[in-house]
């Protein structure tokens, strides 16, 4: 049964599972070919949206890794970005000379990742790459090279599989287009 705020399911859990496994295998192989400090990649998940995707990815990623998390806010709980990223939870380890893979739920304007990437290089990272479950290239406000993305989608507001509306709906086991017409008078 789909949630009432769902207009259309874009990707089912099964489709996400298959694609995530594929990406994990590809990225594991990629790092085998790279020079990586301590042979360990630091995966930095951007909370809270990354959780289901990152958990799925971790189950399939075979290269040696450590996990860290950051909270960087740019959305103000609704469907529009505020455009000013802010770090609400910072790293707890030194990333000097480290190879970093940022794990994100969705890239839209690119402003969040642009900010985070610059920050990580400023902290001394040797290499920072990006893995995102979803990419919305039409929404870009800054140039942002995304090395790996699960699915490319159009400029629509999506929910589920980690993606929220007002902090809810992250628990939907699929990615869906939100029925934004219903949001105006929506009562939880
Ligand atoms: P950006 O800085 O690239 O514009 O936005 C990145 C963040 O905005 C994502 O991590 C995510 O939290 C939020 N975001 C962007 N597009 C969507 C969307 O379609 N649905 C939801 N729920 N969040 C989005």
UniProtKB/TrEMBL annotation:
Its cofactor is Mg(2+). Pathway: Purine metabolism; GMP biosynthesis via salvage pathway; GMP from guanine: step 1/1; Purine metabolism; IMP biosynthesis via salvage pathway; IMP from hypoxanthine: step 1/1. It is an enzyme of class 2 (transferase). It catalyses: IMP + diphosphate = hypoxanthine + 5-phospho-alpha-D-ribose 1-diphosphate; GMP + diphosphate = guanine + 5-phospho-alpha-D-ribose 1-diphosphate. Its main location: cytoplasm. Residues 23-165 form the Phosphoribosyltransferase domain. Keywords: Cytoplasm, Glycosyltransferase, Magnesium, Metal-binding, Nucleotide-binding, Purine salvage, Transferase. It is found in: Cytoplasm. Pfam families: Pribosyltran. GO terms for cellular component: cytosol. InterPro entries: HGPRT, Hxn_phspho_trans, PRTase-like, PRTase_dom. The keyword Magnesium applies. One of its GO terms (molecular function) is magnesium ion binding. Belongs to the purine/pyrimidine phosphoribosyltransferase family. This is Hypoxanthine phosphoribosyltransferase. It comes from Spiroplasma chinense.
